[in-house]
Amino acid sequence: MQPVSGGVPPVAGRTPIACINCASAKTGCDKRVPCSRCAEKNLPCEARFARRTAKAAHRQASSSSLSTVSTLPHTKIEMNSPERMIRKESISESGNFRSGNTVDPQLQGSPPKKQEYPSHGLSTVTDVFMPSPDGSGHAMDTFMCLNDEFLSEEVNYQDLMIWNQYPSELEMYPNSGPELHHPLEIPTFMELAEASSSLETTANGSLDTAQSMSRTRTTSETSQAEYERPLNQIELEVSNTREAIIIAAEAAWPLARCNLAMPSGSCPRTAIIHLENLEQHSRHESTWKLLDHNIGPSEEARQNEVSVVPLNSRTRDRILAITQSFLHTALETHRGGLKDSKSGNPDSAFNYLVLPPSNVLEYFLRSYVRSLAPYYTLISGSMLDPNEFMLNNQASTLLLLLMIAQGATALPSAEARCLAAGLTETCRISLFHVIEKDVELSADPIILRSALLFTILGAWSGDAWHMNIAMGQRGMYLSMLKHAGMLEPCPQIIISSNDPSSRELQWRAWQQRESRSRLVYNWVMVDQELSLFHDTAPFLSITELERPIPGPESLWLAKNATEWLTAVQQSNNTTPWMTPNSACNPPLTPSLCDLFQDMLHDNMNRRHDQLSPLQLKLLLHPLQSLLCHLRQVLSCFSDFSGSHRGQRTVTKASTLLRLEEVQSLLQKWYEMCAVYSKANPNCPVTRANLVLYHLISLNAITSFPEIERLARKEAFDGSSRELSLRCKRCIHQPEEALFHCGQVIRLISAMPRDSRPHWWSAAIYRAALILWVESLSRLPNISPRMEKGQVFAIDAVMPDNPSLVSYLWSGEGIPVLTNGERHFKLHPDEVLSHCIDLLDQGVSMRISDGIKRKLQTLSQNWSME
């Protein structure tokens, strides 16, 4: 390639490419210095060259198109069109990823060391490769077609500069360093950029053909027919590629780590994928029509359900305008602000955002109310009015968008998942920017409520990036809550007059105080749940929680001041222990610290007639905190049941005694909850409370981190003796463990599919792994057992069943699992297969699908056949 007369002087072995300005604008460049475009626009022009040295002889001999490119080792290059390349990786027979840039061992002296990760059943994954062992970046250049074998006169190098749109990925994942050994690395996003650019070019048919083609290949060298690929085919390829990356990143989840785990630092940056999915869907007017079709007819009315007010046209316009700015901010954050907006190219900027129709948004809000509101009560007055939200500020819009995203997670379709994940990432970045610009907003209840909803969305999203960020930012948001003074005690509301106008003001004041109390204790519940499922200690301390517990639901759901005052009088008549003075004052509830002190001093029956489901759920937080502390101490000893040296230290004996005390407190809690459960058998919160109780009780008699280590075969030699010892370290009381696991499955199976708590699939996962380890210990070659007694299904009987009680006391009985009319004994393969079927019985969500894939991979790794 000869330099143009008057242009950049030749450099030995270097090939000139488009200058920086033309590459950023994705326009043609004559490669002069200055080039004609920069000279016309009076821009500083800087020459650029290909990063690898080229061979002149090979360049002149190579005149064929890129479709005849030679194949890389272990790599197949397909040229579907001159606009884009799709690089497919070969997958090993065992189902693990194979590196796409394996270096010839003869050149390196020894084969490069690779770490393989489970493929989760994928057949192909685009852009999967490892950096070169010497950190030289040779693999990067090879992939970007800048090595000698790929250069030819016909190649237009400017389309390779699409990489410049994603500088944040290069900064996040440098192509050197000992810690970067996972095959899923940053070139993934270059291919996505090319595919996205190709899709954008094809979709904008109104642009001039020459202008559209100049963004990808030189028009003089490309036939028009090669640009006529169907749009839906390109969209499908891009969508499948992005989904494959998200699935592959499941190995970096902070929970459900039963298979070989990926370090979070090597996790693909899936957040930009979600944003670009939402951006791409907004390029077509009919993109959300399938959502309208999926929701079908209107839902059946439910008793006592919070109603949703329809959106008016002004509210929708405001949502669109504010969401547009939020998405721009998020895209600029991930792209480093280099998305060209000064080039004058109208197609380089982001198009207008398109949201689903109003009826679909209302459906998502009703879905949020149905799935989340029963467990986190923050909606007052039995009505959610999005129009009232929009009368406030951008913080209220953030909260409304997060509600829509939460509701969209319950719809098992690609469009709903795209909307949920895109809005989650958009709101996360905007939430952080809002707090950064005005630190006083860190104490704003709307902001803290938005942070709460994002934490729930991210932690249970099934996306590794969001899950890790939500867990990392949880401590920051809890510190904001604490520093805002919301954990401190507050005075009681006193009704001083019967004047209607004064009563209205007092009701509003009570609502404001009550909403803060509910916000605080919703954070307490989230803190306890994340601590339980991630096997970590809670952030909040019981001595800090001095704010009064939320009052009765009848007061909170009152629609006006008159209805509220009537509910106050009724509450005082039914719960006289709450009221200090007048029957006209709202009941004064204790703080969680006071409530737990009463439990420790055995004063619950004397001071409290009957606890509400919310109060019972809050009491699980200090119990979980105590148990977590004791489990951490016991894990420091060589063996749970006794030391290998035959010694039992004073510290260990006292810790075991305290563990028995916590188990006694758990039993007290269960007795109080059973009283309410018998009176209200269909209460969803009570069912969820009982599931959490059984999971906490399992932590007292099992070591779940040790179970997951065994599942990953860490420090495991495969012998029967080693397996028997490991099973004993995992489960200390097998009979009780089977009882609690069976009750977890029974309770979740009895819940309605569309209103289960968001962590239900993680609960099934924990029960599945404990049952699986127990079934391993029952194999004939591990521990032959002579079982006798009556057969009973652990996942179908009530806790007071005689067969179950006999099994717990004497060990007599044959525990089985049930699947309809079929009963089967505990066998590793059948246990995992049954729990996978249970995951299919609920609403398909990204996290439940991911857990199902993890259990399937575990079953393959430990197949007993």
Automatic annotation (TrEMBL):
Coiled coil: none annotated. One of its GO terms (molecular function) is DNA-binding transcription factor activity, RNA polymerase II-specific. Signal peptide: none annotated. The keyword Isomerase does not apply. It comes from the Eukaryota. Residues 212-223 have a biased composition (Low complexity). SMART domains: GAL4. The keyword Transcription regulation applies. Residues 92-109, 197-211 have a biased composition (Polar residues). Residues 18-45 form the Zn(2)-C6 fungal-type domain. Pfam families: Zn_clus. Residues 92-118, 197-228 are annotated as: Disordered. This is Zn(2)-C6 fungal-type domain-containing protein.
